[in-house]
Specification:
By secondary structure, the chain is α+β, with helices and mostly antiparallel strands. It contains 7 helices and 19 strands. Helix content is about 15%, strand content about 35%. Strands 1, 2, 3, 4, 5, 6, 7, 8, 11, 12, 14 and 17 form a 12-stranded mixed sheet that branches. A 5-stranded mixed sheet has the order 9-19-18-15-16, with no helix packed on it.
Length: about 280
């Protein structure tokens, strides 16, 4: 299934599922979740039969506004330099290459919609893009074995790890440079695991104003999703709704000194998961 949050006109966001080119409203069958995808994920095993058979109000996809699939996760975690070609270009730019998994957090307040405008803050001159596949945790878990790791995943989505590079490198941690408001567009929906037989065999592309800048396969990760979950869950409990993004391939703007400008449109597309597309605007 493709689960999403949407609105019609000026109505509040609500939960839905995509069926072909139509959005089916899940408000009635998932009342206990309200408009929270996190709460829907927490109750998913109980609600799944009703969600699968739901035939409530139907809206053409083209007539609705898609919101970020999940706007209230406890965590938004990201792994750095997880594609070898990107690690190589980072090293060429003077960024040390880690010898183990490099994790940082994006503050959840940076999350925005799959087609929302993204700010270029006035205090940054080096705003960059990073195409990434994300996954969302479906079960509370700790100390997960690699072999069992995919069993705790609820689904997958498309992400752009927007980064203010000048702020990223001002401190030993990446958090500030990764967490400006609107710098976490994700979506367009959450594709459940049953629709993605192999998350490590997806094609990923990113374009700026129609010019392709990044192209890779999720199979090129240095540390796959199984290894990521095992590593993180050694340290912390993961909760339903936690968003984790899995690294970007080569071709980021810092490698060629080509940073985003107001008016640029960035599209990230991943096979089987859809695409997000955001216009970058002059921010505060």
């Amino acid at each position: 299934m493709k689960l999403l949050r949407f609105s019609v006109g000026t109505s509040p966001a609500r939960l839905g599922k995509l069926v072909g080119e139509d959005v089916v409203d899940l408000s009635v069958v998932a009342q206990s979740a309200g408009n929270s995808m996190r709460r829907l994920i927490e109750q998913f095993e109980v609600l799944r039969p009703a969600i699968e058979s739901a035939a409530g109000d139907i809206h053409p996809l083209a007539s609705v506004t898609l919101h970020t699939p999940i706007d209230d996760p406890q965590k938004f975690l990201a792994i750095g330099m997880n594609y070898q070609a990107h690690a190589d270009e980072a090293a060429a730019a003077g960024v040390p290459v880690p010898k183990s998994q490099l994790w940082f957090n994006k503050q959840v307040s940076c999350i925005t919609g799959p087609f929302s405008d993204v700010d270029i803050p006035r205090v940054s001159e080096k705003v960059d893009y990073e195409a990434e596949m994300g996954f969302v945790i479906g079960k509370k878990c700790r100390n997960v074995a690699e072999a069992d790791a995919l069993s705790v995943v609820a689904g997958y989505l498309v992400a752009n790890d927007v980064t203010a590079r000048d702020w990223q490198f001002r401190s030993p941690t990446y958090t500030l440079g990764k967490s400006f408001d609107t710098h976490g567009p994700i979506g367009p929906w959450l594709t459940t695991t049953d629709e993605v037989p192999d998350p490590h065999a997806l094609e990923m592309t990113l374009s700026v104003n129609g010019e392709e800048r990044q192209r890779s396969s999720t199979g090129d990760m240095i540390y796959n999703i199984n290894a990521q979950i095992a590593y993180l869950s050694t340290v912390m409990t993961l909760y339903p709704g936690d968003v984790i993004i899995t690294g970007t391939p080569s071709g980021v703007g810092i490698a060629s000194n080509r940073f985003l400008q107001p008016g640029d449109v960035v599209r990230v597309e991943i096979s089987q998961l859809g695409f997000i597309e955001n216009r970058f605007i002059e921010g505060k």
